[in-house]
Amino acid sequence: MSPSFYITTPLYYVNDRPHIGSAYTTLIADIIAMYHRMKGDDVYFLTGTDEHGQKVQQAAEKNGISPREHCDLYAARFRELWSYFNLSNDDFIRTTEERHVRVVQTVLRKLYDEGQIYKDTYDGWYSVADELFISEKDYQEGKYRDVRRISESNYYFRMSDYRERLIRHIQEHPDFIAPENRRNEILGFLKQPLKDLCISRPKERLSWGIELPFDDQYVTYVWFDALLNYITAPGYLQDAEKFDRYWPAVHLIGKDILTTHCVYWPAMLMAAGLPLPAKIFAHGWWTSEGQKMSKSLGNFIDLDTIREHCERVGKDMYRYFMAKEGPLQNDSDFSRERFYQTYNSDLANDFGNLVNRIFKLIGKFYEGKIPTPAKFSPDEEALKANAEQCRVKVFEYLQELNVNALTAEILRYVSSLNRYLEIKEPWKLAKNDTAAAGTVLYAALAGLRFSAALLYPLLPEKMREFFAMLNTGEAPGSVLEWDTLPAGVQLQEMIALFPRFDLSLLESSAQ
Ligand code: MSP
Question: Which pLDDT belongs to residue 305?
């Protein structure tokens, strides 16, 4: 049986339209999932929508529709976006689904019966906008919006009981939280005493949520509800075999939801007697044109802006850029110039040029048939050995979820192929030594095919087109050997996969 690999994205709130942040986490997760499938792993890739809570209730009221109608509308928007990006997710979970409600209520009931949940009265500050109980200090510092004094009875989860066990787990599993800066952030956070977690909201204040199974006057706090999706989807309490096969997961999240995932969630799992996640990777944020994204600044990169870029250079470029330049460790800036320059330099010049040169020469000197190589010289042997090394490195970077380095590694190999052609000059060689030129073109095409296969998760549509042109009948993600390129195959007519983008067009458009 092949090894299993379970990866998740956060569940997106349905009170806002999808934007570059949601697209980023999801596309990176898709890329990682696709590489694992290429490796032969049995992959389970999950995304979905987070549909309960005050913000959703308010957004629905504002639009004059019921919360359920509102959720249906937004969940459909997310689904549509993911299908546009050819997302390979295995499941899409909505927290309003029956399968999820059942899991949340069963876990709550178990914890309540065991005394891990108790009732208490809270007297203090509450941020309505952020749906959070906040400390006197945070109130004084004015960190939160829309703050009110409230006195309210609620249910609490004994999260404080798990502090030491959690610290120990993090220390004993250096890869549990990544990157390193986020791990240190959580260890720093855990130096202070951990409070118990309020896991309910009174219905009189909020009705749009999962009812507590032991008190019908309350609904579940949205985070306690949403985090459990990660075990609902692979079949917790429904399909033990599936659940055991896939859990624990690798969670890909943004840095803003670090505490909920690295503290609340592990504590909940420990309380429920379940294994902790395999890894939690929290990436940085995208800024836009040098500033934090905001609607009032006009630099907000929403779905429509994303599609506009995709219409110009193809939707694959979007995921390629997210992978190459995205904020894994720190933050990254999205600028149109950088986006289109990366397209031109990596794809139009480096990759596109290579395809162009090789296909044209094979067309001209070998009637479009892949030439049979003569004996390889040390130069071709080096191309082959470097390919092997590149593959090893790509899968090492995959292990660290370092898609930046992974992408750069493949591109380095593509550049080395261009350099090889410049040194060998097959266009000159072909005029008096077709056998020697044939070997060079075979080797270059073997390298190109190999890099196209490795680029497949980053550029799935374009690489499928490339393999159709190559006409070897191979599936794009299946070719990880350099020297298995069949000679004699008739290449299809070349189409320009990455036509150069005229940067002067940017000056005349606002986006
Ligand atoms: N619903 C919660 C997650 C619950 S998971 C059980 C949530 N949703 S969200 O829609 O607000 O955000 C989802 C993700 O988008 C977060 O991981 C967040 O980091 C990411 N991004 C939102 N804006 C972003 C950027 N500008 N850049 C990169 N990612 C950012 O939180």
Answer: 85
Residue 391, pLDDT score: 96
Q: Residues enclosing ligand 1, CB less than 6 A? A: 10-13, 21-22, 24-25, 50, 226-227, 229, 253-254, 256-257, 285-286, 293
Strand partners, 29: none
Concatenated DSSP letters for 57-99? Answer: HHHHHHHTS-HHHHHHHHHHHHHHHHHHTT---SEEEETTSHH
Omega within 30 of 0 (cis) for the link into 67: no
Residues in the chain: 511
In angstroms, what is the span from residue 287 Cα to ligand 1's centroid?
14
For 191-246, where are the alpha helices, taking DSSP H only?
222-227, 229-232, 240-246
Q: Which pLDDT does position 128 carry in this prediction?
A: 78
- What are the residue ranges of helices labelled H in 314-377? 315-325, 336-342, 353-365
For a mutational test of ligand 1's pocket, the pick from 13, 230, 291, 333, i.e. the residue with the most ligand atoms closer than 8 A to its C-beta, is: 13
* CB neighbour class for 48 (10 Å; exposed up to 12, middle 13-18, buried from 19): buried
d(CA 306, CA 84): 11
250: left (phi over 0), alpha (psi -120 to 50) or beta: beta
| 3-class DSSP assignment, residue 202 | strand
Please report the domains of the chain, with CATH numbers, ordered by start residue: 4-283 (3.40.50.620), 340-470 (1.10.730.10)
Angle at 19 between CA 14 and CA 25, to 5 degrees: 90
Which segments within 279-329 are labelled E, that is strand? 279-283, 286-288
Which residue, by CA, sits nearest to atom 23 of ligand 1?
21
- 162: which 2 tokens? 């798990």
Q: Residue 249 has which token pair? A: 């997961």
In one-letter notation, the amino acid at residue 373 is P
Sites in the chain below the pLDDT cut of 70: 508-511
Residue 343 is classified by DSSP as I
Atom index in ligand 1 nearest the CA of residue 292 equals 26
The H or E element containing residue 201 is strand 200-202
CA 422 / ligand 1 centre spacing (Å) = 46
Euclidean distance between CA atoms 489 and 501, whole angstroms? 32
**Pairwise CA distance, residues 78 & 362, whole Å:** 44
Predicted pLDDT of residue 509: 59
Chain Cα centroid distance, residue 129:
27
- Is residue 489 within 8 A of residue 370, CB to CB? The reply is yes
DSSP one-letter code for 329: S
Phi then psi for 91, rounded to 5 degrees?
Answer: -155, 155
pLDDT of residue 508: 60
Looking at residue 488, its amino acid is G
State whether residue 391 is helix, strand or coil.
Answer: helix
CA distance 386 to 389: 5
